[in-house]
Specification:
alpha/beta, Rossmann fold, seven-stranded mixed beta sheet, about 20% strand, binds ligand GEK
Length: about 240
């Protein structure tokens, strides 16, 4: 049974910077499902794409794995085949939930570390959902380059991100639809505004142009947006 997210339900005197602490980890599954449009559609299709691209004796990385929704979906699809996966998250409470939930742990490593600090082994699939947006912008090029270098030819990076729009009318329209979705999913105006304040300067979205430039400069020549919902976008990059 999912625990309901009401972290921002009561007016707070001072809004602290958003952190992936124990309180957030406990309600994370409810929070992400109500905050990210088409979240389970993204996870489901990524698990299916990953199953097509995974090559024996290589790793799948799930960067910023949180409570393990991707890992769980992939394990279900791939239950009768062998694979090696590395789940990385720098939040201990998140990774604890992830570890306790995933049954097939022999082939899955759990690493509690900043993704800026990890080394990558030979991989055929890298999943990075809603994680680049939390990294310092200046470090993102380097991480994508490291991912590219770890992938075998034909390997893929699947990444989803919240997107920034520089054109004001479009940006306002997309924001409006996004906040309406949160309302439809049961968040109050107070919850929406307090969370938005907590995420200021913590979640730093970039434009699609910037993402695409970074993929291209890292070496990816086959890239596309396979899903889009206003200011939420899922990318596929094939090496
Ligand atoms: C999902 N991918 O369910 N290094 C490692 N982990 C980090 C770092 C970092 N530098 N910064 C943030 N995290 C998941 C959803 S949530 C997205 C990802 C969201 C972790 C952080 O602890 C959290 O678990 C995750 O990245 C971001 O598909 O909540 O909007």
């Amino acid at each position: 049974m999912k625990q309901k997210d009401n972290i921002y339900g009561i007016r707070q005197k001072e809004i602290k910077k958003f952190k992936f602490d124990k309180k957030v980890a406990e309600v994370f599954d409810d929070m992400i499902e109500r905050s990210v449009p088409l979240y389970f559609e993204i996870i489901d299709k990524e698990a299916k794409i990953a199953a097509r691209f995974y090559k024996k004796d290589t790793y799948i990385y799930d960067l910023g794995c949180s409570t393990g929704n991707f890992c769980s979906a992939f394990s279900e699809i791939f239950y009768n085949k062998t694979f090696k996966m590395v789940c990385v998250d720098n939040s201990e409470p998140m990774l604890e939930i992830c570890k306790n939930r995933i049954k097939y742990t022999d082939n899955i490593k759990f690493i509690c570390e900043d993704i800026l600090k990890i080394g990558f082994e030979k991989s055929s699939v890298v999943i990075a959902n809603f994680i680049f947006q939390f990294l310092p912008v200046s470090m993102r090029d380097n991480v994508i380059k490291k991912i590219y270098n770890s992938l075998i030819p034909g390997g893929i990076l699947l990444t989803a991100e919240k997107i920034d729009y520089k054109e004001e009318e479009i940006s306002a329209l997309y924001q409006d639809f996004y906040y309406k979705l949160k309302e439809e999913n049961g968040y109050s105006g107070l919850e929406i505004s307090q969370k938005r304040e907590a995420l200021e300067n913590v979640l730093l979205p970039e434009t699609i142009t910037n993402h695409m430039r970074r993929f291209f400069e890292a070496g990816f020549k086959k890239t596309d947006i396979w899903l889009k919902w206003f200011n939420f976008t899922a990318f596929i990059c094939i090496k």
